[in-house]
Specification:
Radius of gyration: 32 Å
Number of helices: 17
Order of helices and strands: HHHHHHHHHHHHHHHEEHH
Strand order of the largest sheet: 1-2
Low-confidence stretches: 5-10, 13-23, 25-29, 260-271, 351-364
Oligomer: single chain
Length: 364
Amino acid sequence: MNARRASHCLRPPSQINDHAACRNPCKRRRGGPPALSAVPAPAATEEESVDFFDGLPDDLVVSVLSGLSSSADRPSDLISALLTCKRFHVLGRRPPVLSKAGAGCVAVRARSWCDSAHRFLKRCVDCGNLEASYVLGMIRFYALENRGSGAALMARAAIGSHAAALYSLAIIQFNGSGGSKTEKDLQAGVALCARAAFLGHVDAIRELGHCLQDGYGVRRNVTEGRRFLIQANARELAAAVSSYPAWKEQRRRQATAAAGATSPGCCPLLSDYGWSLPAPEPHPANQFLAEWFGARAGEGPRLCSHRGCCRPETRRHEFRRCSVCGLVNYCSRACQALHWKLSHKSECSPTHGWPAVEGGAATH
C-alpha cells in the first residue's frame, strides 16, 4: 500500500488532473502549497525567443511581394505593404517585384498624379516592366505632351510584344500624331496593327478588319476584312461570357435604375451584330486620359468620343468626325464603328447619312 501511494505521488503533473484526483496525497503536499515567492518564473523557451519572420529567406519574401504586385488592383495595395516594415520596404523595391507589377498595380489615377507617382512608374520601367512602359508612355505622349519620350516608351513595350502598345503606335502612325498630316505612315500602321492583332488585341483585330474592308493602307480585301471582324466579335463574346456573373449583376442594377424603360440599358458591344453585352473596363492608360482631360473640359484638345479610348488630338482636326452631325470625333475606324453601335446610332440624325459606317468605312 505504501509503495502504491509513493508511486502515485511521484507521477508527473500531466498524469494528475488536480489535487482532488489524488486520493492519498503525500505528507509533503499536506503542508499546503509553497509560497508564491518561492515559485520560479517560467523560462522563455527557445521557440518563443526566435522571430520566424526574420528567419524567412529573402527570396521567399520577394516571391510573395512579386505575387502581390502582379495581382494588385491598385498601386496602394503594393505601397501599403511596403510601408509595413523596413524589410518589406527594401525587398519590395527589387527588380523581381517591380518588373512583375500588373496593370492594376501601375494604374495611377490622374487626380493622384505627382512626382512620386511619376518616379514609381519610372522605377518600374527601369526594372523592365512592359505594362509600366506603356502606361507612362501614353501619359507622357498625350497628357504631358512629351512626344519623343512617350513614343520611345511605347516602342520599348512594343518590342517586348505588348499588344496595347503596338496598337497605340499603329494609331499614331495612322493619324500622324505629334506631327503634321503629311507624316502619316499607313503601311507602318497596318503592320503594327497586324502584329497586335496576332497577339489577340481585340481593338487591333477590329481595326485591321476595317482597314482591309476599306483598302486603307493595305490592298482591299473585303472577305478577309470581314473574317477579322467576326474574329473580333468572337473574342469579345468569349470575354463577356467569362464575366457573366458581373454582366448579370450589371443588368440587374441598370434595370432597377431605368425603371419603366423598354430596354435593360446594356451596351451592344458586338459592332457587327449589336448583341447586348457589358462594356469592358477601359485600360488604365485610357482611364488616366479620360480623367486628365475631363478635368480640363473646354480647355484642352478634342477627345476620341469612344469612352473606352479618350485619346486627345495632338493637332487641330487630326481625328475623323461624323459627317452627319459633326459632334463626335474618332481616332480610328475601330472606335468609330464601335461607338456607332454603342450609342451614337440613336443620337445621330439623320441616320441615313451613315450607310458606310455600317460596313466599316470611315467618314471625315
